[in-house]
Amino acid sequence: MIGYITAGLLGLLCLSIPVGIVLFLLGFGIDAFFSPFPLTKGLGNLVWSTSNNATLIAIPFFVLLGEILVRSGIATRTYAALDRWVSWLPGGLVHANVATATMFSATSGSSVATAATVATVAMPQAEKLGYDPKLFSGAIAAGGTLGIMIPPSINLIVYGFLTQTSIPRLFLAGLVPGIALALAFIAITAILCALRPELGGQRRVFPLSEMLRALLELIPIILLFTIIIGTIYQGWATPTEAAAVGVAGAIAIAAMFSGVTLAMLREAILGTVKITSMIMLVVIGASFLNFTLASAGIGRELQAFLEGLGLSPLAFMMVVVLIYIVLGFFIETLSLMVITIPIIVPLVVAQGFDPIWFGILMIVLIEMALITPPVGLNLYVVQGARRSGRMSEVMIGTIPYLLMMLLMVVALIAFPQIALFLPDALQ
What we know:
This protein has about 425 residues and is mainly α. About 80% of the residues lie in helices and about 0% in strands. Helix 6 packs parallel to helix 8 (about 135-145). About 50% of the residues are buried. Part of the tripartite ATP-independent periplasmic (TRAP) transport system. It is found in: Cell inner membrane.
């Protein structure tokens, strides 16, 4: 049965049918051929109960927050400010790509939005200053993946909703690995450009006074991040309430720089509606598919199969990691999460692993899927911003950063406290 479902999933995706529709079609197929019960009769109630959840209201708020920051021109100011501080390193402006992606990851919650923002601002600079197009593009694509790790993260909200785990604890758990990955990206860039200076373009050093003035451009973003995360951890607001406060703060920041116009707000709201509709269609479709899978006994069948292999917990986790790496080549990241979480997470917990820790490990694996062909969304976003050159250049440029992600996977498995010590310390 599992083989038929997997073949059906990949076959429908190859037909370029939207992922949310694919999930519904698979659910209908399982109901018709494998379930002894008429599951579709409960579809209306399932759709309502899934969408009528207060936790998911945080998603459109965080999307709107990112849209406002991008469309009001704050991204350009942030990039220019970080350029003053990191371009002295081997690799020059490449580090500004990673630093800006890290900064916007802490506010937007979306990897694709982060990559699109940085790519739009940075690409003209690469052509003007003579940077290697492969490494420069790869750094943007990889830096953009931090949007689903560093809190607030839409993907962590979805994980918390599907697994009924604490979203504030997930946010805390993602903070250290996210910052560590950003530093690893900067380190590997500096090493590569020190060995081969032609990759990094010109290193630039700015006067201290200019660097200090640039900090003023960063203060509003840092303050906004502090307000969003601080109100959650202090217990003053839920993630949904903090997201609403963040939207108000983003509008205030945009107004400070004269970036608030009716046209900007209209575009931001329209973009939010489009992105949120896509996310909710996938979440609702996945909920229906997971309902049919559970009713048809797929979870029990898969659990019995894995238990029959007689694997140790570590070997079991290696199999799970391999499954996510392989599936990441073919399935879009959010879809990969919502399809696999209800099946994989109970098995992981049964093996004695912490669901908070596994959520962070899964996010790293899904980050890799964002920059691996053929469906790595960040690759297409960056290539679209380039408007020239080959997609293969972006793919090659991400290889050093993929290696850093693999090292993070190994580190998280070997030392789970990398993700857990902050949630445990502040519990």
